Amino acid sequence: MKDYVPTIGLEIHAELKTKTKMFCGSLNDSEEKRPNVNICEVCMAEPGSLPTINKQAVKNVLKIGLALNGKIADFTEFDRKNYFYPDIPKGYQISQYKYPLVQGGELNGVSLTRIHLEEDTAKSTHQGGDFSLVDFNRAGVPLMELVTEPVIKSAEEASGFARELQMVLRYLDISDADMEKGNMRVEVNISIKRSSSDVKNPTTKLGTKVEIKNLNSFKTVEKAIEYEIKRQTKVLEEGSKVVQETRGWNEIKQETFSQRIKEDSHDYRYFPDPDLPKLFISQIPEFSEEALRKEIPELPKEKRARYKEQYNLTEEDAEFFIRNKDFDDVFKMALGSIKDGNEKSTKLVSNYIISDLAGIVKEFPGVMTNKTKIAEDVALIVDTIITGKISSRGAKDVLRATLETNRTAKEVIGTAPSQINDEKDILGIVMKVMESNKTVVEEYKKGKTASLQYLIGQAMKESRGKANPEILRKILVSKLV
Predict the structure, then answer these.
(1) Per-residue pLDDT tens digits of the chain, which is 481 residues long
(2) What is the dihedral of CA 307, 313, 315, 320, to 10 degrees?
(3) CA–CA dist 475, 431 (Å, integer)
(4) Contacts of residue 132, Cβ cutoff 8 Å, sequence gap at least 6
(5) 469: Cβ–Cβ under 8 A, 6 or more apart, which residues?
(6) Which residues have CB under 8 Å from 235's CB, separation 6+?
């Protein structure tokens, strides 16, 4: 099989968080389950109705543009993108073509082409039979579209880009970007060509582009790209030509399927919408770069660098907090409540949140609404471990009890048996365990170092988790000589 290389570009749509829709006063409520409730004469395209521009939606796109180092346009306008589909009530979609709000930019090393603003379509439900249903609640919702340059080379790189964009949108608080709910949708443009090492006269010309529409999870993005690379490679190997088309993803069959021959831009007959005014961004004070940058928080890229330097966290631990805002809030509040903040206490807080808290809260839905209490409990537990009043095993039990009973860590620790720190008491436990495990003791003396951990475990079990593990280990090692 000849060597082929893929070229991938992404088009990512994200519904923006605004009170009302893009061009009318109907509510923008993605949680509304009743069909055709949030509609009006504008989003239903009734004759004589006129659209108006949602200022907050424009502002949101400008913010993401600055966050990704794009160039903010001074002049911009909205265009009519003409095509017929049952979920387009007007027979055209209001979008942007020649003059987008943002040009250029970069994220995760991937260059961006543009970011523009448009309105979302309605939602069609195909229930079988000879009819379909259309819910117009989503029609007209503000929709950001981000287009990358065709510079992505792998499925993993593509999904990594989409994950990072999702985080940036959430950090800016301009979109929930929930792929399961359809707040964020990924479309892939992919072509393959012979690699330069496999041809005598290599060319930079790309292969025939195929678009895969509406991918709704990061895993699906990877699977669809990997499948399409194999499919196109097979087509070329058989001596056929790849057809420029739009394809969908069949989750059951785990394969792409043809939907329609891909349209070019001229097929949409773009022209400026005559009902909407042109915008000159520099003439709107609240859209100035200075004003917008004040609203841009610390973003994931900067936060990664800071967490590694400030807290000496591993890359994996830092990434956990960056991707999980609630646990990140608990982490920061707990560090603020620690009596003796140092690298050891920081590591303990991090470990208990990632290794224990993150798992326990799944058993108690809703507990994370009280993050302040949880942070105070974690801080007190860590302080108590450092002072030797409870063991690390006991700390896990205390943490679970605070969530299970809604008591504070102070209350739980007050009723819990204290840690055993007396060396005489621990020596008695060690001697009992060694007497009961003579074979294991002999194995250790012959060089089987793993036996030590077993004996420590048995001693902790004998003490019901109350023995100070450091003192226990020290005494046990001294007696095994």
Answers:
(1) 468 899 999 999 999 999 999 999 999 998 899 999 999 999 999 999 999 999 999 999 999 999 999 999 999 999 999 988 888 999 999 999 999 999 999 999 999 999 999 999 999 888 777 888 999 999 999 999 999 999 999 999 999 999 999 999 999 999 999 999 999 999 999 999 987 644 444 445 788 999 999 999 999 999 999 999 999 999 999 999 999 999 999 999 999 999 988 666 678 899 999 999 999 999 999 999 999 999 999 999 999 999 999 999 999 999 999 999 999 999 999 999 988 778 899 999 999 999 999 999 998 888 899 999 999 999 999 998 888 777 777 788 889 889 988 889 988 887 656 667 778 878 888 898 898 898 888 888 888 888 888 888 888 778 766 777 778 788 888 888 7
(2) -80
(3) 10
(4) 86, 124, 125, 126
(5) 391, 392, 456, 460
(6) 241, 242
For 280, other C-beta atoms within 10 Å of its C-beta total: 12
* 210-215 and 245-250 strand pairing: parallel
